[in-house]
Amino acid sequence: MGHKEKSKERRDKRLQEISLLRTIPYADHQRWWSKETIAVVTGGNRGIGFEIARQFADHGVTVILTSRDASVGVESIKVLQEGGLQDVACHPLDILDASSITQFCEWLKENYGGIDILVNNAGVNFNFGSDNSVENARLVIETNYYGTKRMIEAMLPLLKSSSAGARIVNVSSRLGRLNGKRNRLENESLREQLSDVETLTEELIDGMVTTFLQQVEDGTWKSGGWPPTFTDYSVSKLAVNAFTRFMAKKLSERGDDEKIYINCYCPGWVKTALTGYAGSVSVEEGADTGVWLSLLPEKAITGKFFAERREINF
């Protein structure tokens, strides 16, 4: 059996284990949450976001899913309610629009007081198969990185203080890994800078995506050492991963009763509109690690990257 076959066999076995784990209910001593626990899932009207919202509601968490189109959001929660899940709500939100984010935050504060869990799932991808166009690079970076960043910054004041700690989970991708065997950032100096969490800064991360977009505009991006496939998407997720680590360090300075734990995870190549339905992973499997990570009883896990319920390297 070759390396590829062995790797697939290991992965399939792991997914079977996770599938079994999903059927085991949380014990009472593990459940730090209740229906008073509020989770927000961006881009929750379809795909992975919708399934994350469904699994949260199934675990007894009150869920607010957001959608750019208000009517689509309403239809999404109708589906959940028809499935017997009542503690669900929706609200329109465009993470590219600062006023939309402000309106959403005001609505949350007025109706819920605050939230306990934020899942940044909203994202875009325009490359499928062997296509590697950067025609939409600016929109990809604006949505996947800056949109996620805006949401985190706007929601921080709304994340409730508790002994369990508030949770932020960013949906990311292995395509944005610094040191993966394939598709990694080839600029060694930049890779080293992004690897050092002690000196990592927001300015460095913003500077990286600005440089990438400048090179896209002047046509030199192919010689810039960027990840060779799904380039714009990969750079956006590389930035999300780096920002997750930066924020984890920044938030670690908060007092014990004000803790906010932030992590990111790769759902895998999921069969959704984002992958042109060409993925190999079901939405249930893709959502699982995000939900598991959000509900972890072991609260002091932060600044990490996960896939299939295991920590992986950035």
TrEMBL record:
It holds the Pfam family adh_short. CDD domains: carb_red_PTCR-like_SDR_c. Keywords: NADP, Oxidoreductase. GO terms for molecular function: oxidoreductase activity, acting on the CH-OH group of donors, NAD or NADP as acceptor. It is an enzyme of class 1 (oxidoreductase). The keyword Calcium does not apply. Its EC number is 1.1.1.-. One of its GO terms (cellular component) is membrane. Belongs to the short-chain dehydrogenases/reductases (SDR) family. This is Short-chain dehydrogenase/reductase. It comes from Clitoria ternatea (Butterfly pea).
